[in-house]
Amino acid sequence: MPSTISGRVLLPSNDGFEQLHKKMEAGWVFQKTRLTNEYSFDTFQAERGEKSEILLALKASGKIVFPASADQTKLEPGDTLISFGEPPGPPR
Predict the structure, then answer these.
(1) 44: enclosing H helix or E strand
(2) Distance CA 53, CA 67 (A)
């Protein structure tokens, strides 16, 4: 779509439809991950950092935080991440 239409991109990588489709064919999925005391944001990043892109974080308060502001917002237990990436587990 032309940039003059405006809007926002879905993922921080700015992938277009073709790139997203290729990733989905390669097994990438949308995931919901709830952060807990045992599974922190640091753990999420360590396990899936380069293999996953965060679309948004839903704060326990109900506030939605997008990736651009996620760096400025502390993610805590009770928050839920919506991401797109390789499924967790051993590499395929």
Answers:
(1) helix 41-48
(2) 9
